[in-house]
Amino acid sequence: MIKEKEVSNPNEWAERVAGGDRRALARVISFLENDDDRGVAVLKELYARTGRAHVIGITGPPGAGKSSLADKIIRELRSQGKTVGVVAVDPTSPFSGGAILGDRVRMQGWTGDAGVYIRSMGTRGSLGGLARATYGTIQLLDAAGFDCVLVETVGVGQSEVDIVRVADTVVVVAVPGLGDDIQVSKAGITEIGDVFAVNKADLPGSERVATELELMLDLGSHPIWRPPVVLTVAATGQGVSELVQAVQQHYQTLQEEGKLAERRLAREKEALLLRLVERVRREILSSWAERELTELWAALSARRLDPYTLEEKLYNAWKGARDE
Ligand SMILES: Nc1nc2c(ncn2[C@@H]2O[C@H](COP(=O)(O)OP(=O)(O)OP(=O)(O)O)[C@@H](O)[C@H]2O)c(=O)[nH]1
Ligand SMILES: [Mg+2]
């Protein structure tokens, strides 16, 4: 273990992370997970060194084979000589720090490979907190020099979708046998995917899922990139090199069309604004005593007070306190 006393400032942590020190990397990720201020302090030091990694998001329904697919994608990228950092996010799991069993089992062959780093993260606090820690971790892996950063997340709700949105390339994994087109037509799914993998193509029905996806995609407009649909069998690795090729073509297209920086700036702005809003919200709420707030909510509920007046009251009190 690193003795904390030996590392006294963010700059030292940053140097260690950028230099590829894995134990430092693991510690700083824990800072982020625990909302320890040192995490953000290190991110500030490292931001100028980020933006080099290709961030690849993998999302899809539970059990679709995302981790198995990630394992085979790592293999393909390694064969190209690329280094890979992985963040496996499980919003339903309270565990973190590599304790998610499925991911460990499915991606376990890499412990001896210095070119691969895998970290699992779960929610201990809020989903917003998880999203923040995940995003910070991606930046750390980027600054640590990994060529590619894979982010796996279960795509069941909006927050999970938000997590994967930070990727340069989003792979949506669909599977046969989940009944009709629930997975395909689920709002937003066709919108966020840059590449679609129909996994478990060894099972019946995969061709149909692929056809439905193609039809759905045909309805959309795709000015620079029409998302391809690739059949895969993560269990054997079949189709994975085609998948990786599609993912890399997408990245190349973004670069050639000058859209990569635009996409990254958009996500950075969105994340920053969300943090700001959250901060102001916290400040406003914490400036009131619990009892006072309870009374205000009760007045709102009983319709003795309208929400617009209350909004002004809360805002003005906060602003007044700031202007003093
Ligand atoms: N038949 C078949 N089974 C597969 C394939 N890929 C994965 N599986 C199996 O599907 C199950 C789930 O695989 P995972 O890789 O853990 O799926 P996941 O999407 O990461 O699961 P969660 O992270 O729990 O949502 C495992 O039993 C895999 O062996 C495939 O291509 N074909
Ligand atoms: Mg998984």
- Residues in helices, as a percent range: 40-55%
What is the CATH homologous superfamily assignment of the largest domain? P-loop containing nucleotide triphosphate hydrolases
**Nearest-angstrom radius of gyration?**
22 Å
> Cofactors and ligands present?
guanosine-5'-triphosphate, magnesium ion
> What fold name stands as the CATH topology of the largest domain?
Rossmann fold
Beta-sheet strand percentage? Answer: 5-15%
CATH class of the largest domain: Alpha Beta
Strand order in space, largest sheet:
3-2-4-1-5-6-7
Cα distance spanning the termini: 47 Å
Sequence of secondary-structure elements: HHHEHEHEHEHEHHEHEHHHH
Structural domains: how many: 3
What's the average pLDDT?
A: 87
What is the correct CATH architecture of the largest domain?
Answer: 3-Layer(aba) Sandwich
Question: Low-confidence parts, pLDDT < 50 over ≥5 residues?
Answer: none
Characteristic key phrases:
324 residues; Rossmann fold; binds magnesium ion; 13% strand; 7 strands; alpha/beta; single chain; binds guanosine-5'-triphosphate
Walkthrough of the structure:
This protein is α/β, with parallel strands linked by helices and 324 residues long. The chain folds into three domains: 1-47, no CATH class; 50-258, Rossmann fold (3-Layer(aba) Sandwich); 270-323, no CATH class. 53% of the residues lie in helices and 13% in strands. It has 14 helices and seven strands. Strands 3-2-4-1-5-6-7 form a seven-stranded parallel sheet, with helices on both faces. The termini are far apart. The mean pLDDT is 87. Bound molecules: guanosine-5'-triphosphate and magnesium ion (MG). Guanosine-5'-triphosphate binds at residues 62-68, 102, 106, 154, 199-200, 202-203, 233-235.
